[in-house]
Amino acid sequence: MATKFAKIISIVFHPVLIPTLGFLLLFNSGFYFSMLNWDAKRIVLLVVLFSTCILPLISVAILALNPKFDISMEKSQDRVIPLLSSAIFYYIGFVLLGRMEAFPVFKLFLVASVFVIIALLLISFKWKISNHMAAVGGITGTIFALSFRSGINPIWSILFVTIISGVIGTARLILNKHKLDQILAGYSLGFSVLYLIIYFI
């Protein structure tokens, strides 16, 4: 039962879905960009979904055509090409949002995420760091940075993302996908990079 639940959590909060889910949470956290009308939010969400989910999934599907490619990516080296392509796709999303003249924080999120992905890419040559935790750590860091910058305390969003972070980390441990140090390292990386860039820039 625990293993089945852990698998569901790992799928629902997969790294390719977390950015879109994170933007949905941000849009409902009381920050200044919450005043956007739904049409504007929908366009931003579509750009984020396209660049952080659809394109990365298509690239993995293409890689899966090669029988030598392990789609489960159990080895850290198997993640190198998907991470490299994801960094490119995130940058494409950054460019698209720039042309839309979206709020700077949206563009900062994507460009900061590129730095996280590059760090994950470099680390993956030697070590299997948790991409799941880096993704949810990035969302958490973003919410905390915006909270401190704006003076707004979105307590329910903070509680939600903190609890979800623990649930995701526990799920990865139950599935034996990562060790505790790999989970903590991924979360710390995502949180620190997004927090520092969004808070100071």
Description:
36% of the residues are buried. The chain has one domain. The model has no long low-confidence stretch (mean pLDDT 93). Helices cover 74% and strands 0% of the residues. The chain is built from 8 helices and no strands. It is globular, with a radius of gyration of 16 Å. The chain is mainly α and 201 residues long. The termini are far apart.
Rough outline: globular
Query: How many strands in all?
Result: 0
**Number of helical segments?**
8
Q: Please, what is the average pLDDT?
A: 93
As a whole number of angstroms, the C-alpha radius of gyration is 16 Å
Please indicate the count of domains.
1
Classify the helix fraction into a percent range.
Answer: over 70%
Structural class: mainly alpha
Largest sheet: none
Distance between the termini: 44 Å
Order of helices and strands: HHHHHHHH
Percent strand: under 5%
- Described by its quaternary structure, the protein is single chain
Low-pLDDT stretches: none
What characteristics describe this protein?
201 residues; mainly alpha; 0% strand; single chain
